[in-house]
Design goal:
- The complex is a heterodimer of chains A (about 375) and B (about 290).
- Chain A is about 50% helix and about 15% strand.
- Chain A is α/β, with parallel strands linked by helices and about 375 residues long.
- In chain A, helix 9 (about 220-235) packs across helix 14.
- Chain B has about 290 residues and is mostly helical.
- Chain B has one domain (about 55-285): MetI-like (MetI-like fold), CATH 1.10.3720.10.
- Chain B has helices spanning about 5-35, 55-60, 65-95, 100-110, 115-125, 130-140, 155-175, 180-190, 195-220, 225-230, 240-250, 255-275, 280-285; strands at about 40, 45-50.
- Chain B has a two-stranded antiparallel ribbon with strand order 1-2.
- In chain B, helix 7 (about 155-175) crosses helix 13 (about 280-285).
- The two termini of chain B are about 35 Å apart.
- Classes of the chains: A alpha/beta (about 375), B mainly alpha (about 290).
- The interface of A and B includes residues 90, 117, 363, 370 and 374 of A.
């Protein structure tokens, strides 16, 4: 019942003698007071559900999201999607920590370890999965790992996956040389000053584990890893800190080899750059999710997630950002382009990819991120 | 209320908005940072409130932080010297030019219309492997492969000079503009050469402006973190990068707070030294 109807009924009661004049005026006054007090706040509350904030990795990834998901969603629902970008999960977590509840809504997070960290800091929400029927089409393995962290419920939907493998300029490094040297090419003196590396401590320690012949999810000789990190640092042109910077360094031939995100390398290849890509044995596999942060307007967020998981949207975004979608190829026909993307698994089991163990990485995060920071700066 | 009482209240009324703003936007946040610096970061990334001296002990006695701080002061000093050497002649030219001072000052301010980050990144297109300089040299046949010019301490200084030079020029200009040009003529009429009159008369009189510009350049250079990220190599980090990493990457706000207060204390001490010997009046003149 709207306010006009309420007023009409009240007036009718007064006119019929159901209430006296004093009560009628008193009720009108109380209604006016209540309206005056709640209206300024109600305006903010209504505005909040008229838009949803989404934060992602920027560059070609954000462009794909904007073009294939947000703009069509806004057209269909009337809810505006405000998109922001970040250079890494750590940086974004710091921003969320400093924000007010509801300021940030959905984030394109990478890895189950990030999901666990957000949950550990009390930033997770509980999705009503009934509002996201398209979740049924997602690869079950991708969903289950998140459920384990949040006791069966979900604060995110898996969206895509990829790898951090080795990217190299074919003008200077042949495919055969890459196969022969593998991860050790990042420690090859011949390419001193033409090697780069992501400034992310996890990726650096993962690759150092491989270079020292250790399990990336269970290294035992950390001294060997620190030595490998120092050797890599001394051969480095620079540590890159965003996907855009990675693409620029490779495209401008500032560097010949680095570890790189599979989708970004595919985007470079599509632009005509002769950049090779190789996933070494036990290369860094990861899955990305759309995480709904505590305090967000849940229904619009769930509606957006469902829209983004729709087959047409998901495939269009995947083709745009060059990362395979989380949709199960056994349930959904993914078209012709998706199977050509790097890291795509036609079986839907993802058994060929090695993912980071959240307990192992988050358990060492405080110590190792600090240790890497020192090594990075010449110590 | 009498006229005297009203006049006595005027300064208080006029200063109240500024004092309130400084208190709310500077003093209160600094208080928060100070409190934070005594907290601890737990393994999950959450903060543990309390009074712990661990962060301060690490910040003050760990050679890692001391060395980066010294390197930061060195880079800031080199930047300031380069700004002084290149900025003084430019300021002298503007101050002594006839008729077109306003246009020259406008040209000096033009770079501020472009984002600092974009200005910094523009050096990648100039000095990069396929940048303007390398492409030009290769087209002329002077080199066969690109020279490695980017991502080292020199490019960090270059980026900082690019950013800070206008501050130096403006401060020196204000100082030079206030010097009576006939003083140099008087020195010449007494037998001094032009160079001698500059060294004996103009330069000493313009030193307060040079010092004010130097202080501004030094403080701004020492507090930067964007330039080393964009133009620096693996070992060119400055102290502000440590603050950024502690707060953003490591989610260690308590340690980041201790480090930022440490940098503030060092730069604050420099400002106090400047104030003791030269006073803040010249600095304010340069900024106005």
């Amino acid at each position: 019942m709207d306010n006009t109807k309420r007023y009409e009924r009240l007036r009718e009661r007064y006119m019929n003698g159901g209430i006296d004049r004093r009560s009628f005026l008193g009720l009108i006054g109380a209604a006016g007071l209540a309206y005056g007090v709640q209206t300024p706040f109600a305006r903010h509350a209504l505005a909040a559900t008229e838009q949803v904030r989404f934060d992602g990795w920027g560059g070609v990834v954000s462009e794909a999201f904007r073009k294939h998901a947000f703009d069509p969603y806004t057209k269909a629902s009337g809810i505006k999607v405000v998109d922001g970008t970040f250079g890494g999960g750590d940086e974004f977590l710091s921003r969320v920590k400093a924000s007010q509840p509801g300021e940030y809504n959905i984030a394109h997070l990478s890895g189950v370890f990030d999901y666990a960290r957000y949950h550990g800091l009390g930033l997770s929400s509980t999705l009503n999965e009934k509002n996201i029927p398209n979740l049924a089409n997602v690869i079950p393995k991708l969903v289950d790992v998140f459920r384990k962290v949040t006791d069966g419920s979900l604060s995110c939907v898996p969206y895509d996956y990829g790898t951090t493998g080795l990217a190299y300029n074919r003008k200077y490094i042949s495919d055969d040389e890459m196969k022969e040297k593998g991860v050790k090419i990042l420690l090859d003196e011949r390419f001193k000053g033409k090697i780069a590396g992501w400034s992310d401590w996890r990726t650096r320690i993962w690759y150092a584990s491989l270079q020292t012949g250790q399990d990336p999810n269970g290294a035992t000789d950390m001294d060997a890893i620190w030595d490998a990190l120092r050797a890599h640092r001394d051969l480095l042109l620079k540590y890159w800190s965003s996907g855009a910077e990675l693409m620029s360094l490779l495209a401008e031939e500032e560097i010949y080899v680095t570890e790189a995100w599979s989708g970004r390398v595919h985007a470079l290849q599509q632009q005509g750059h002769d950049i090779g890509y190789m996933d070494p044995p036990n290369g860094f596999g990861w899955q990305e999710c759309l995480f709904v942060i505590k305090g967000s307007p849940m229904e619009p967020c769930e509606e957006l997630l469902n829209f983004m998981l729709a087959k047409e949207t998901s495939i269009a975004v995947a083709e745009g950002q060059s990362y395979p979608p989380a949709l199960d190829p056994n349930k959904v026909e993914l078209g012709k382009i998706i199977p050509t993307l790097p890291a795509f698994d036609p079986t839907g089991t993802l058994d060929g990819l090695t993912f980071a163990d959240p307990a192992y990485w988050n358990g060492n995060e405080q110590k190792w991120s600090k240790a890497f920071s020192r090594i990075q700066k010449g110590y | 209320m009498s006229l005297e009482e009203r006049e006595a209240r005027q300064p208080v009324l006029l200063l109240t908005p500024a004092i309130t703003a400084v208190a709310l936007l500077l003093v209160v946040p600094l208080g928060f940072i100070l409190v934070y610096s005594f907290w601890l970061r737990t393994a999950t990334g959450a903060d543990q409130a309390g009074f712990f001296l661990d962060n301060w002990r690490e910040a003050l006695f760990d050679p890692f932080y001391r060395d980066i701080l010294l390197n930061t002061l060195k880079i800031a000093a080199v930047t300031t010297i380069v700004c002084a050497l290149t900025g003084y002649p430019a300021a002298y030219f503007i101050a002594r030019s006839r008729g077109n001072k306003a246009l020259l000052l406008l040209l000096l301010m033009l770079p501020f219309w472009i984002s600092y980050i974009i200005r910094t990144m523009s050096w990648i297109n100039i000095l990069g492997a396929s940048g303007a300089v390398n492409s030009g040299l290769m087209a002329l046949g002077l080199i066969s492969e690109p020279l490695p010019m980017l991502y080292n301490e020199a490019t960090v200084v270059l980026g900082l000079v690019h950013f800070l030079l206008p501050f130096m020029v403006l401060n020196v200009f204000v100082s030079l503009d206030g010097i009576d040009a006939t003083l140099e003529d008087a020195a010449c009429s007494l037998g001094a050469t032009r160079w001698r009159s500059f060294l004996e008369v103009t330069l000493p009189l313009s030193l307060p402006g040079l010092a004010a510009g130097g202080l501004l350049c030094f403080v701004l250079a020492a507090g930067t973190y964007i330039t080393p990220i964009v133009l620096g190599g693996p070992s060119d980090a400055m102290f502000a990068n440590l603050v950024f990493e502690a707060i953003i990457t490591q989610l260690d706000w308590p340690m980041g707070s201790a480090l930022s207060l440490m940098l503030l204390a060092v730069l604050g001490a420099l400002v106090l030294l400047y104030n003791h010997f030269l006073g803040m009046a010249q600095l304010m003149k340069g900024l106005s």
